[in-house]
UniProtKB/TrEMBL annotation:
GO MF annotations in UniProt: chromatin binding; peroxisome proliferator activated receptor binding
Superkingdom classification of source: Eukaryota
GO biological process, one term: animal organ morphogenesis
Domain HTH HARE-type: residue ranges: 1-77
GO cellular component, one term: PR-DUB complex
Entry keywords, A to Z: Transcription
PANTHER family: ADDITIONAL SEX COMBS LIKE PROTEIN ASXL (PTHR13578), POLYCOMB GROUP PROTEIN ASXL3-RELATED (PTHR13578:SF18)
Name the UniProt record assigns to this protein: HTH HARE-type domain-containing protein
């Protein structure tokens, strides 16, 4: 598989912002994430090829945003997603419990 220096870092740095290959390359170059001169004569063409190849592999690191032309993002592991879900669930359960306790407190005080 092709490797492109800084690709993972660029998408990881902006996880909520799917980007085109051109935008990813700009982030890599502007923020100095990796040296791109070693990639070849056309870093953008190389990056496009790498993204296209990687998104066609079932367990690739990146995915193409469905219905969007040339937008790519970093895949997150299910463990990460489940972890966030559990954190949100616990948070909302605590909020719900606090609200119920406050309602009971007001009834008890009367």
């Amino acid at each position: 598989m092709l490797q492109f220096p800084g690709l993972y870092l660029a998408l990881e740095k902006y996880p909520n912002s799917p980007m085109t290959a051109k935008q990813i390359l700009e982030v890599i170059q502007k923020e100095g994430l990796k040296e791109t001169r070693s990639v070849g004569t056309s870093p953008l063409a190389c990056l496009n090829a790498m993204l296209h190849t990687n998104t066609r592999v079932g367990d690739g690191t990146f995915f193409k945003i469905p219905g969007k032309s040339g937008l790519y993002a970093l895949k997150v592991s299910l463990n990460f997603v489940y972890g966030l879900y559990i954190q949100l669930l616990i948070h909302f359960m605590n909020v719900s419990i606090d609200i119920k306790v406050n309602r009971l407190d007001s009834l008890v005080r009367k």
